[in-house]
Amino acid sequence: MTYHLVHRPGSPASASPYRLLNSWKRELDWANHFLDAQRIRGLSLCSLRTYAYDLLHFARWWAASSRRPLADITHSTLLEYVRFQLDCIPKPTPQTVNHRLTVLRRLYRFHQGREIPGERSRLGYWYATRSPLGYGRHRLGATGLRLKQPRHVVIPLSTEEVSRFWRSLRTFRDLALLALMLFDGLRSHEVLALQLEDLRRSEAQILVHGKGNKERLLPLPPETLQILDSYLRLERPATNSPHLFVSLKGRLRGRPMTPAGLRSLFRHHRLISHVPEANPHRFRHTFGSEMARAGVSLPALMQLMGHSEIDTTMLYVQISRQDVWRQYIQAVQNRVPSLPRLPEGE
Question: What is the CATH code of the structural domain delimited by 4-112?
Fold first, then answer.
């Protein structure tokens, strides 16, 4: 039995547009019912897509390794599943493996109403979940199977790298895309999700729809606003699409820009500009680092970037050794006059 994933954008609002099908093009009910439940609780389309691919990966492995029902999953099943992934070439990252395990636990909880047998809390038992849809946090921290995730330090782009990549762009649309990432810290999917009505030109603001359907209102620098105005006046084709960014040419002209189109855009300009590290996340990280260097407080930066936890914001703040020494010298110069004078040597 083989499985594959299809995307049905015309699905009702209560159903996931991502569907798992078997060899006979029949829906895989245990996976699709779970995805529908996540759609109902408000999971973003980007997260739904990730969940669907995680379920597809597990379904293929489960069908090849066992003919047992889903209810027979145990902690030993998770161990076998992790061993299988670690033996794959290329090997998935620990973050990917952990996310698949999390989705599998939620899937089991959704269908069985309890935790996977063998998975225990620190005190040896679980509290009930807060939702019948298969999500919610436990009051006790879980000690279930999880791979250690190395902490990756993302180095922001230099001023010269940003300048080279910026000069390689040829349309106001592409410049506006990059400006929103570089000067407002938008994620790639946040940029693609922008609607025309989200742009408030008279107020120089833009409404961003972030993770978890959380909204944040961000100011637009005059330069970004000018580029957006030029794009809307000179380049954006006449279309009924409500999306701010659309394709400019080809058979998809006037249709909303897709994640694949954005990846292709960055891939092309990485080659032209000779900045191999340039990608949407790297520009967002550069925004966070530059804001921290400019003196923006962590709580303010947390709101600008749309983080729910300040620890996440801290990952974006990489201060160089020169910055640390400069701030130290400034602090000493400002503080020393009020301290007792050191005794002079005889």
Answer: 1.10.150
Identified catalytic residue from 57, 105, 187, 282: 187
Which one is the CATH code of 159-325: 1.10.760.10, 1.10.443.10, 3.40.30.10, 1.20.1260.10?
A: 1.10.443.10
In DSSP notation, 4-15 reads EEEE-TT--TTS
Quick one: CA torsion of 318, 322, 324, 328, rounded to 10 degrees? -160
The ranges of the chain annotated as CATH 1.10.443.10 are 159-325
pTM (predicted TM-score)? 0.71
pLDDT > 80? residue 316: no
Catalytic residue among 19, 105, 109, 307: 307
Does the active-site annotation cover 214? Answer: no
Our answer to whether residue 187 is catalytic in this structure is yes
Given the residues 4, 75, 211, 270, the one annotated as active site: 211
Known catalytic residue at 200: no
- pLDDT at residue 200 above 60? yes
Q: Indicate the range of 18-27, 221-230, 313-322 predicted with least confidence.
A: 313-322
Q: Say what the pLDDT of residue 133 is.
A: 52
**Using an 8 Å Cβ cutoff, are 220 and 184 in contact?**
yes
